[in-house]
Structures are given as C-alpha cells and as structure tokens.
Amino acid sequence: MDRESGVGLLRAACERLRGQGCARAVAPLDGSTWFGYRWVVETSEEPPFLLEPRNPLEYAGWAREAGFTPWQTYRSTLHTAHVPDPRAAELEARFARLGLRHPVPRTLEADLRGIHALSNAAFVGNPLFSPLDWPAFEALYRPLLSKVPPEWVWVAEDGGRTVGFLLSLPDPTQPGTLIAKTLAIAPGREYAGLGRWLAECFYRQAFGAGFRRVIHALMWESNRSTNLQGHGRVIRRYALFAREL
Fold it and tell me: What is the pLDDT of residues 139-179, one digit of tens each?
C-alpha cells in the first residue's frame, strides 16, 4: 500500500464511522485488544521478535496525515543481565504464603481457567478493554501454552485462586532470547508488589538458565508494570492512534 491509498483508506473509514454516529476513531484495532493492535512508531537495530506487531514506519505518518494522533503508547525493552531487585528479600518474605509454580499437563485446564478469570479482572482498567469469554480465550491461549515450555510460565495462587501469572516464551527466531509477554496481578493492595516479585523470579531463572537476552514486550507506558523495565534498553515503541470525528 502506498501513501495516497493508506491516507485515503483511513479518511474513508472515518467518514463511514461518522455517518454511523461514532464520535471517535481508533487505529489500528483488530476487533479488540485481545488481538492485533498498535503500530510500531520507533525502532532500533534489533530485529523483530516473536508475536511483535510489524508494520512500515510510514504508517504512523499516514495516520497523522489523516488526522490521527498517538493516544496510547507502549514500548519493548531489552535486558542483557539480571540486576537483582533491592527489595527481593522483603518481597520473598511477603509472598512466601502464596503458591508459586509452573503449569503441568494435569493442571493445564484449571490453570487456563484461572488465568482467564484473572486476565478479565486485572486488565479491566486498560484502554479499550473488553472481557473475553471462556471459549474465545481458550481458543487463543491453549495452543500458545501447549507450545511454551512450562518452566517459562509462572502461576501464583492464594488459597487455590490464581492471583498472578507471568507468561514468557523463548524466541525461536533469536537463539538465547526469552520474551516476557504477559504479566497480570489480581487487583487490590494485598497483592501490591507481587508483579515485581514474579519479575525477579523470572529474571533470576532466565539468566541462570543461560539466556543472554530478555525482552520485556509491549508494555503500556501508563502501566506501573513498566517500572519492572528500569534496567532495560528501549528497542521499540508503539502507538495506538485516535481522532475525534
């Protein structure tokens, strides 16, 4: 697609939405944020990683020309060493009562259902969030989890209830690279700091297992979890664009 076609398509879509009574247009969005959204707006020499959005950088310029501006921003960071969390001992003691484990085949069904419930609760404050029902969630995540080595998925439980999870996966296109894809923690002050503790466990294990690179992927820049990326180098930035109609 060339510039003229891209800008024209966005403008035509906005006209159609305006005619249907819509007040705002958002791009790109493949139905909901459970599926493809965000455009790459800034990059580096680092190659694309598994499950990352891919688009020509020109798309952002075309969106601006069609009247869109960045509405929400995201980033991915690269870590090449484990920098121990100074609060690690405190966090370990605080969450010692929780069960922290990796899924195994006999627990996969229960783990999927726990992750589904937690995701719908934990992400409710994210822009454009909409709940995903169990059949759609299962169709999306079961194939993914079946391909991920279980030691790279963490589930935290409190009295049998899933209160945290971290999903990561090795990148087959970049040997020695591990991608931290999704981190979710149950709402409430009771679990404040659990995401930080899961990240510490993750980095310890990743670099201890010989991975040389960890990519903390596609984090919303308004989310407190971006604090977990403090020692990483930003390798990509993304944006979700919007315009009033």
Answer: 999 998 888 899 999 999 999 999 999 999 999 999 999 99
Q: Does residue 141 share a domain with residue 187?
A: yes
Instruction: Report the distance separating Cα 39 and Cα 52, nearest Å.
Output: 10
Q: How far is CA 28 from CA 14, 136, 172, 197, in A?
A: 13, 21, 27, 33
**For residue 105, what are its two tokens?**
């085949």
Number of domains in the chain: 2
In-domain check, residue 83? no
Instruction: Please tell me the number of Cα atoms within 13 Å of 6 on its side-chain side.
Output: 18
Note down the domain range covering 172: 88-211
Under a CB-based contact definition with an 8 Å cutoff, are residues 207 and 11 in contact? no
* C-beta atoms surrounding 48 within 10 Å: 15
**Residues forming beta bridges with residue 183, ordered by sequence position:** 166
Q: Taking a C-beta distance cutoff of 8 angstroms, is the pair 184, 122 a contact?
A: yes
pTM of the model: 0.91
Closest C-alpha among 91, 86, 104 to residue 198: 91
Q: Does the residue 226 lie in any domain?
A: no
Tokens of 17: 């939405």
In a domain? residue 232: no
